[in-house]
């Protein structure tokens, strides 16, 4: 099989590289900061190359279960078992390979959302409190984020309704951009390939291991084993890739989960602290205030 090795394309042009039937689309990226497309994808797709696109791409699973595999060109395949509500966030400046196999009887429907770079720059400027040199969001494969899903469902409903409003979609694009800037910003990234940094597929593997049990004590040795490296080499490459040490990044993941639980559940602060690995209420409050700027009680209010 000969692969199409086109390295870059436009947001509109990517559609030609992935098989499937387009169900609906908005066409307002140029002046409204968002392009939305909904596709019914093939049930089985063999190995193909996904060209790089300038705009960050969100792919949200509307229906169907599938095993989706990705890898850097010629690298090791990484598998994400996805279902309705899961998402991919792709920001890479490099092409990559992809394939999938649908495992459910449901149609495999997905929504593509491209956000304009100027809109993201504005959102990141607001979130960071000033200009930043590079605009890059960290990549996510097969993630689940209920807050993000609420926004994406509003986009889907608007697009599938009669007379979708470009102005309304633009407002949703602004909300999504700010949400991504708050929760998925990789401020260490730039547009150049990062030499001596942890490869994306290994980073995703380590991230999955961290997120699997946030209540577990941090264990550098185990994470280094997941990446197949010595502890020293892993720590150095991880920090170059993520902008934080493995421990700092693990704490940030814990605090992100704690913030979600504080806002979306009625669990006690003590129970939330236990769920993210803090048996001491005072220690949890101390770390939360250091990382977030307010105490858990103040954040919930």
UniProtKB/TrEMBL annotation:
<dbReference type="InterPro" id="IPR018062">
    <property type="entry name" value="HTH_AraC-typ_CS"/>
</dbReference>
<dbReference type="Pfam" id="PF12833">
    <property type="entry name" value="HTH_18"/>
</dbReference>
<dbReference type="GO" id="GO:0043565">
    <property type="term" value="F:sequence-specific DNA binding"/>
</dbReference>
<dbReference type="InterPro" id="IPR050204">
    <property type="entry name" value="AraC_XylS_family_regulators"/>
</dbReference>
<dbReference type="GO" id="GO:0005737">
    <property type="term" value="C:cytoplasm"/>
</dbReference>
<feature type="domain" description="HTH araC/xylS-type">
    <location>
        <begin position="204"/>
        <end position="301"/>
    </location>
</feature>
<keyword id="KW-0238">DNA-binding</keyword>
<dbReference type="InterPro" id="IPR009057">
    <property type="entry name" value="Homeodomain-like_sf"/>
</dbReference>
<dbReference type="InterPro" id="IPR020449">
    <property type="entry name" value="Tscrpt_reg_AraC-type_HTH"/>
</dbReference>
<keyword id="KW-0010">Activator</keyword>
<dbReference type="GO" id="GO:0009893">
    <property type="term" value="P:positive regulation of metabolic process"/>
</dbReference>
<keyword id="KW-0805">Transcription regulation</keyword>
<protein>
    <submittedName>
        <fullName>Helix-turn-helix transcriptional regulator</fullName>
    </submittedName>
</protein>
<keyword id="KW-0804">Transcription</keyword>
<dbReference type="InterPro" id="IPR018060">
    <property type="entry name" value="HTH_AraC"/>
</dbReference>
<comment type="function">
    <text>Regulatory protein of the TOL plasmid xyl operons. XylS activates the xylXYZLTEGFJQKIH operon required for the degradation of toluene, m-xylene and p-xylene.</text>
</comment>
<dbReference type="GO" id="GO:0003700">
    <property type="term" value="F:DNA-binding transcription factor activity"/>
</dbReference>
